[in-house]
């Protein structure tokens, strides 16, 4: 399974809070937090082929451009699945992830989801009917490995168009 990750500057390892204006960037393979995801992805034969990212402030100042360009890049690269997140409890990143995932699902044939904690409740309320949003703990919370395992179940069911996809969504998404 070919996977693209959509990260903010922090998860990409591009400066965190000190560099919120990082422009839209694409890199081959996985970077930053991808190293934490890959052991889980190995269990489902998923390989990160690219990571797309930008800073939170850059996104907020250029929302439509970022969503349009990231969606176009996904369409061109044609992965099997796109993970937008994990966003933990960061609302700006959650908004970016949910908007991009919804756009990918609307404008491409690629499967996608966002992943964030319940603390991003406004974004979850606005987007939960537009894209699957996988439940996860806030940063420092317990249960991250379980959330990533749930994400992997959703990825497999989505890509394989599994009959139990609706049931999995009910168990692992908001």
Structural summary, described in words:
- The chain has 174 residues and is of the alpha/beta class.
- It has helices at residues 9-12, 34-42, 56-61, 63-77, 91-107, 121-127, 144-159, 165-172, and strands spanning 2-8, 25-28, 47-54, 81-84, 111-116, 133-135.
- Strands 2-3-1-4-5-6 form a six-stranded mixed sheet, sandwiched between helices.
- Helix 5 runs parallel beside helix 6 and helix 7 packs antiparallel against helix 8.
- The longest helix is centred in the middle third of the chain and has 17 residues, at 91-107.
- It is globular.
- The two termini are 24 Å apart.
- The model has no long low-confidence stretch (mean pLDDT 97).
Judging from the principal axes of the Cα atoms, what is the shape?
Answer: globular
Widest sheet: strand order? Answer: 2-3-1-4-5-6
Estimated helix fraction: 40-55%
Low-pLDDT residue intervals, each spanning 5 or more residues: none
Estimate the mean pLDDT confidence.
97
For the sheet with most strands, the description reads:
6 strands, mixed
* N-to-C series of helices and strands: EHEHEHHEHEHEHH
How far apart the termini lie comes to: 24 Å
Tally the helices.
8
% residues in beta strands? 15-25%
């Amino acid at each position: 399974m070919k996977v693209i990750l959509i990260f903010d500057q922090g998860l990409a390892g591009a400066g965190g809070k000190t560099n919120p204006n990082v422009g839209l960037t694409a890199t081959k393979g996985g970077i930053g937090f991808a190293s934490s995801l890959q052991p889980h992805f190995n269990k489902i034969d998923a390989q990160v082929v690219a990571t797309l990212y930008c800073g939170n402030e850059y996104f907020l100042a250029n929302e439509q451009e970022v969503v349009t360009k990231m969606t176009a890049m996904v369409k061109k690269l044609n992965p099997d699945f796109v993970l937008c997140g994990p966003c933990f409890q960061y609302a700006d990143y959650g908004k970016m992830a949910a908007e991009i995932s919804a756009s990918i699902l609307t404008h491409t044939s690629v499967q996608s989801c966002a992943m964030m904690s319940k603390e991003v409740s406004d974004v979850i309320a606005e987007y939960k009917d537009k894209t699957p949003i996988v439940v996860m703990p806030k940063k420092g919370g317990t249960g991250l490995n379980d959330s990533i395992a749930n994400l992997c179940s959703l990825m497999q069911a989505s890509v394989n168009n599994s009959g139990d996809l609706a049931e999995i969504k009910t168990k692992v998404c908001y």
